[in-house]
Amino acid sequence: MNFIKGISKFILFLIAVYVFSAFFAKSNYNVERTRVMSASQKLIYTQIGILKNWENWSPWKERDPLVKFSYEGKDASNGAMMYWKGGEHTSGSGSIEIVQADPPYSMVYKLSLLESFAMSSKGSFILSAESSERTQVRWTNHGELPFLLRPLMMFMDMDKEMGPDFERGLFKIDSICSNLEGQIQTIMQRDSLKN
Length: 195
Hints:
Helices cover 39% and strands 32% of the residues. The longest helix has 37 residues, at 158-194. The protein is built from 5 helices and 7 strands.
């Protein structure tokens, strides 16, 4: 009997320490990555603002090829939505909603995760033209951490967790847009030869 009481007290003590530490742990996070791409703002924006195109470059789809997507709303417009459902331990389920579209300069979105700890965050893409063929793309995401998740974040760095995915996504957008730019140039040259 004393053994069970001792275990119960120890478990209560651990719960109390965990909850107490939540008051002092980080309450929010911010992740940001930037890449200069060899394509125009307009072309890059088609990959970002048209949510269906995320399937082409999403690092999360790359890890979970069985993930399913559905869409609502007008492309590259406020209120456009993308929903996904994938493996519980890979991509889970959630949604992205465009909350502020300003093509071809920026797009702000709300990300909602629906499994495990339900939480939401805000992200953005800022496109700055360096020339007619070079664009700097900045991808950010920031959010509030649920109270009971905060102590776990003392042992996990969101920037290190999410940053490589952002880098991979930006790399793939750059590759796709570089290929599209090359195809556009080829078509334009072919058309000019015909005239």
